[in-house]
């Protein structure tokens, strides 16, 4: 994964130096932690996350589990791995389905984050798994959003519920509410609601997203964030958490050569799990997110 290439190389170099040592002194540990800290900051990971992470690694690395280990350096690498899994959210979190269908999944995020593409990916993935999803065009802000969702829906082979008038007109809250009723009647078991996003965080649109949330009572609200967003990840994620709140995070554009900081900050800053990763423009470039696998890829 291109995103973490540089961070991976830096950490590999750090651990290579560490492995040349037998017993580890406190100075060895501190030197290693300093290098890890720099590598994470250069990858755009948020400072609070870096501090928290290195604090935990340091405490454990200076403790008994390393002291008594047959191979102390290997043990430190293991600790870094475990703590990385933790900041990535610990256990994998799967989608929650409603006991009484339809399950409503609402998508939120900045414009261009990859929501509409994700809607298609998610729908296709769920349909393959035997579900009968519909996509809902509740982005009536962007001139072409409805058409774009219809194109994505056709590619995914999944129907799209859209306001009759088409692009840019109508009340998105009402469209979302009607879509849930439609799904109940037509026995679609999952409703995926695409919502509007702006280039920056925007109070009016945040309220609109909150209203859609209230009207549809979703089982999941997924916050889609572009991995390329770098240092802005924290402020953006917090704004969406305060404005709409969300139950999970989707990282998009993990195929790009971003430095990966967003990916490593967001779960820990918001306390919400990363549930999916989007890794390309195609509808199949999508996978459930496994914190342990991601940590292993970074430390490979
Ligand atoms: P929205 O405004 O949040 O609905 O974002 P879109 O779904 O329209 O995506 C914005 C652009 O990013 C489009 O050109 C997509 O093809 C592209 N895109 C979305 N997801 C990914 C991804 O995972 N990787 C790459 N490389 N491009 C993506």
UniProtKB/TrEMBL annotation:
A GO term from the CC aspect: signal recognition particle
EC identifiers of the protein: 3.6.5.4
Any GO MF annotation of the entry: 7S RNA binding
EC main group: hydrolase
Domain annotation SRP54-type proteins GTP-binding: ranges: 273-286
Parts of the chain that traverse the membrane: none
Keyword annotations: Cytoplasm, GTP-binding, Hydrolase, Nucleotide-binding, Ribonucleoprotein, RNA-binding, Signal recognition particle
GO biological process: SRP-dependent cotranslational protein targeting to membrane
Catalysed conversion reaction: GTP + H2O = GDP + phosphate + H(+)
Binding-site residues, GTP: 109-116, 194-198, 252-255
Subcellular compartments: Cytoplasm
Family label: Belongs to the GTP-binding SRP family. SRP54 subfamily.
SUBUNIT field: Part of the signal recognition particle protein translocation system, which is composed of SRP and FtsY.
Its biological purpose: Involved in targeting and insertion of nascent membrane proteins into the cytoplasmic membrane. Binds to the hydrophobic signal sequence of the ribosome-nascent chain (RNC) as it emerges from the ribosomes. The SRP-RNC complex is then targeted to the cytoplasmic membrane where it interacts with the SRP receptor FtsY.
Free-text note regarding domains: Composed of three domains: the N-terminal N domain, which is responsible for interactions with the ribosome, the central G domain, which binds GTP, and the C-terminal M domain, which binds the RNA and the signal sequence of the RNC.
Protein name (record): Signal recognition particle protein
Species classification: Bacteria, Bacillati, Actinomycetota, Actinomycetes, Micrococcales
Range within the parent protein: 1 to 300 of 520
